[in-house]
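Entry for the shared binder. Reason: the reviewer on the internal report wants the predicted structure included alongside the sequence.
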Amino acid sequence: MAKTQLNVRVDESTAEAARRRAMQRGMSVNRYIEELVKQDAGEVGRTFVEAASDFMKQYESVFAEEFGESGTGTDRGSGKGMGSGEGTGTGREGKR
């Protein structure tokens, strides 16, 4: 793959940290930065999936209560779950 030169300005402490970490890994600063960018670009999809998974774990009981274990929804006429009209707290009960 053809290489393109990219000039980046960073403060001295960031430059020193990049040099030190690259040396610890036995690679050039260029290669180190390239690896960081590739890693970061590849993590976008993983980050989304992990966040979605965490969300589902956190709200699993809410979804199970609302939609049932089969995911088809609760019996709306049973008074369970939302949509039964009872206890909605709209403030319109008995008013016309």
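Summary line for the report: The helical segments are 12-25, 29-58, 60-67.
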